[in-house]
Amino acid sequence: MIRKPYIHLLLPLTILLLAALSSPPAMATTALPEFTTLAKRTGAAVVNISTVRRVETPDLQDFFRFRKPEGDNRMEEFWKQFEKFFKTPEGNRKDRSLGSGFIISPDGFIVTNNHVIKDADQIAVNLQGKDKESDSYNATVVGRDPETDLALLKIETTAPLPVLEFGDSDAMEVGQWVIAIGNPFGLDHTVTAGIVSAKGRTIGAGPFDDYVQTDASINPGNSGGPLLNMDGKVIGINTAIISSGQGIGFAIPSNMARRIIQDLKDNKKVQRGWLGVTIQDVDENSAKALGMQQAHGALISSVRPGDPGDKAGIKPGDVVLTINDRPVADAGELLKHVAALLPGEKAALQVWREGKTLPLSVTLGERPTSEEALLGEGEEEQAPEASEIGLSLRPLTKDEIKEQKLERGGLLVLEVDPESPAGEAGLRKGDIVLELNLKPVETLDAFAELMEKDAAKKGVAMLLVKRGKQTIFRTIPLDAAAQDAE
């Protein structure tokens, strides 16, 4: 028989145990975000964009390169059927495409992607709930920026329109909730939700890649639509997908887009700073050749005569370490920092030259908009260099120096062993070696002497190479060359 004092002790313990067992875990009480209010509040400012582009098309008889035979009645019926089903009126084909956009001002300014409206002859904008062709607005292009794939449109309307505001894309953290609204596959005003998967993505789309990655479903037709935070502000413009993947989409960050859109609105074009130099990353071998402790900064491979960099005293072989006290990690970062400044602004640079840091001040020019200038007059993907490292060289002749418009001579690459360090470094037949470890080389003796006395001590050879209209640096670790020779 249990005595009463023990009963008094057991009852409270039993009640506490039952309460604990019946209570759900703390995690189960955390609710997922609710998107309905957000979708209703922001959806009206998202638009569908349809374009028409007229394409010149040849007559199919010209395409197949044959003609209806004259006076041959046996083929008459064949040609009647051919022309009925296959003949296309010349110049009559129309390419149609769909995309998205969003309104940023009550008077009808609309943001979208440049690729959505590129080469379009007609641009039609449909608002939410207005899906008929008769309800669409004709849009005009205010300005485009192909380098960031942004465009600004304008429609005329008497009533004020709902708008979306830009948010702070830098403040977004990986893992935060976002929604995308757009016109995927022509399914207007589709809402998808997800999170910010990553920031600062480079996908090879252009010189200013800095994308927000999201797993909110983005499909063809979403291009130009907004990526929204939970406050209903635009933190990205949906622009790209990986066709072979799911749940991987990319958006132009709002902090980049905001200034570009304002430039397009004010000036019809984007103004960007310009140094007039070609740049490349500093790898470990280049850093070693330049006497740097770490591989960082942007290596100047050429300077255009008369451009801002030349006037400021920048030289090939300089490494830009900071701009306006902001560290420069690589060539892409310098490009973005310079482009974010306006023509005419002064920029303070810290450059590494011959083992020392040197301050330089440069007044920026305006970045050219022609495709040739943007690519550095045919600049292409670049690669590295060599000597008894798999190269056959000879000095340039006087005529070749004149033809190449060089101030002094150099060494022409006659052959490159593809299995050698030079081949692996990417040196090509026809390249012209101008410098070795920042010293001019016009003769084979000068090249051999620098290889022995300078490059051997540093353990690396850094060549300045002229390739076509561009000059590039390439580096070869000499210990690797020695191993290959053994």
TrEMBL record:
NCBIfam families: degP_htrA_DO. One of its GO terms (biological process) is proteolysis. CDD domains: cpPDZ1_DegP-like (cd10839). It catalyses: Acts on substrates that are at least partially unfolded. The cleavage site P1 residue is normally between a pair of hydrophobic residues, such as Val-|-Val. Residues 260-328, 372-444 form the PDZ domain. Keywords: Hydrolase, Periplasm, Protease, Repeat, Serine protease, Signal, Stress response. It is found in: Periplasm. The keyword Protease applies. One of its GO terms (molecular function) is serine-type endopeptidase activity. It comes from the Bacteria. InterPro entries: PDZ, PDZ_6, PDZ_sf, Pept_S1C_Do, Peptidase_S1_PA, Peptidase_S1C. One of its GO terms (cellular component) is periplasmic space. It holds the Pfam family Trypsin_2. Substrate binds at H115, D149, G221, N222, S223. Residues 1-28 form the signal peptide. The lineage of its organism: Bacteria, Pseudomonadati, Thermodesulfobacteriota, Desulfovibrionia, Desulfovibrionales. This is Probable periplasmic serine endoprotease DegP-like. The active site is at H115, D149, S223. PANTHER family: PERIPLASMIC SERINE ENDOPROTEASE DEGP-LIKE-RELATED, SERINE PROTEASE FAMILY S1C HTRA-RELATED. Its EC number is 3.4.21.107. Belongs to the peptidase S1C family.
